[in-house]
Amino acid sequence: MRLYFKQRFFSWFDSYDVYDEWGNTAFQVEGQPAWGHRLHILDAGGRHAGTVREVVFSIPRRFELFRNGGYVGSIRKELTLFRPRFFVDYNGWQVTGDVMEWAYSITDRDGRPVAEVSKELLNFTDTYTIDLRNPEDALDALMIVLAIDADKCARND
């Protein structure tokens, strides 16, 4: 399964549209005014499916993940020299990126691929492609990509 995740050009807060490989809306992401990033994920039917929330004043920066209203885990960037790595305390997943932070691999605890994430260059807004092995992992992978993008944005501010 492939998802295309594109930030909206005109929005006051972080807002994204997520499409499947056939161009259908899979998710919508709405940013909410708050201290730190707070992103609400709606499914294709407009129902709340998940939330990514930055833990303010955490070092290193950490994001909490909520699914169906309940806390499921968090993600934080590990301190590394060259290749960025993120620690996910949910699903046993690990995230490793390239030096430029434009591509990421999400693997399970046994090292098997869960998703490949790549950022498209030469766009006015952040645009990502998420290639998933299992469609059931779409929401979890999306929450991780949103947290990584929010972390990058916070570091660039």
Q: Rough shape?
A: globular
Into which percentage range does the β-strand content fall? Answer: over 45%
Helix/strand class: mainly beta
Q: Encode the helix/strand succession as letters.
A: EEEEEEEEEEEEH
What gyration radius follows from the Cα positions, in whole Å? 14 Å
- Cα distance spanning the termini: 33 Å
The profile of the biggest β sheet is: 12 strands, antiparallel, barrel
Helix content: 10-25%
Q: Could you tell me the mean pLDDT? A: 87
Count of strand segments: 12
- Per DSSP, the total helix count is 1
User: What low-confidence regions span 5 or more consecutive residues with pLDDT below 50?
Assistant: none
Side by side, the strands of the main sheet go 1-2-3-4-5-6-7-8-9-10-11-12
Structural descriptors:
157 residues, mainly beta, twelve-stranded antiparallel beta barrel, 1 helix, 12 strands, 12% helix, globular
Please describe what this structure looks like.
The chain has 157 residues and is mainly β. It contains one helix and twelve strands, in the order ββββββββββββα. The protein has one helix at residues 138-156, and strands at 2-7, 15-20, 25-31, 38-43, 48-55, 62-67, 70-77, 85-88, 94-97, 103-107, 113-119, 127-132. The chain has a twelve-stranded antiparallel barrel with strand order 1-2-3-4-5-6-7-8-9-10-11-12. It starts with a strand and ends with a helix. 32% of the residues are buried.
Helices and strands, with pairings:
Elements lengths: L1 E6 L7 E6 L4 E7 L6 E6 L4 E8 L6 E6 L2 E8 L7 E4 L5 E4 L5 E5 L5 E7 L7 E6 L5 H19 L1
Antiparallel strand pairs: 1-2, 1-12, 2-3, 3-4, 4-5, 5-6, 6-7, 7-8, 8-9, 9-10, 10-11, 11-12
